[in-house]
Specification:
Largest sheet: none
Radius of gyration: 17 Å
Shape: globular
Number of helices: 8
Distance between the termini: 32 Å
Order of helices and strands: HHHHHHHH
Structural class: mainly alpha
Number of strands: 0
Length: 197
């Protein structure tokens, strides 16, 4: 990969992972509700789950959608259902210590698995492979994956820290409920491109 192409890939990766989307909204919510330390597995699942997804997508999984378009429709339906469930879970999350539910942030495996039903992740993966690893050879796909791992770590950390910065202000249960309902609503709004696309 040439330096110019790598710089373009890094800028593309930064623009796609730092922009608001389901992962970042959930990381900010996790930071606000559970703090940085408890959110580390969730952060790692997002930061490394997406680059791990890029490898099979780049090495052949995207051909499934090219040759069998109903598979993409099925993915959209699954994505919408899962995001609806996540939005409900976020909206109804109780404040730490309220004892209504044993709320926990997503685990590494849950956050990594979420990438496979996250519509923004699929758009990012398909776009990055098409633009920066069109040959779909292992070296090119690995460059894309590694670039996303580095930049994704910075993004996941930033969004979670933004959430932890709100913790003191959100110590009021009423404010926390409003925040969680707002984040759930924004998560639903993030589905609009899937439903309209």
């Amino acid at each position: 990969m040439t330096p110019d192409l790598f710089l373009a890939l890094a800028l593309f990766a930064a623009a796609t992972v730092f922009s608001p989307g389901p992962n970042n909204l959930m990381l900010m919510t996790s930071g606000a509700n559970f703090g940085l330390r408890q959110s580390l597995p969730h952060m790692a699942g997002v930061a490394y789950g997406f680059p791990l997804m890029i490898l099979p997508v780049g090495l052949g999984a995207m051909q499934l959608f090219e040759h069998f378009p109903p598979a993409y429709t099925a993915l959209k339906v699954l994505s919408v259902l899962y995001l609806l469930w996540l939005a409900w879970k976020i909206a109804h999350q109780s404040a730490p210590g309220e004892g209504r539910t044993a709320a926990r942030p997503l685990s590494f495996v849950q956050a990594a698995a979420f990438q496979w039903v996250n519509p923004k992740a699929w758009s990012m993966a398909l776009g990055a492979i098409t633009l920066y690893a069109a040959s779909r050879d292992l070296a090119a796909v690995a460059w894309v994956s590694a670039t996303y791992a580095v930049i994704g770590t910075a993004s996941a950390t930033t969004w979670t820290i933004l959430g932890t910065g709100l913790r003191r202000w959100l110590s009021n249960p009423r404010r926390l409920r409003v925040f969680n309902w707002t984040m759930a609503t924004l998560l639903l709004v993030a589905m609009a491109p899937v439903l309209l696309g």
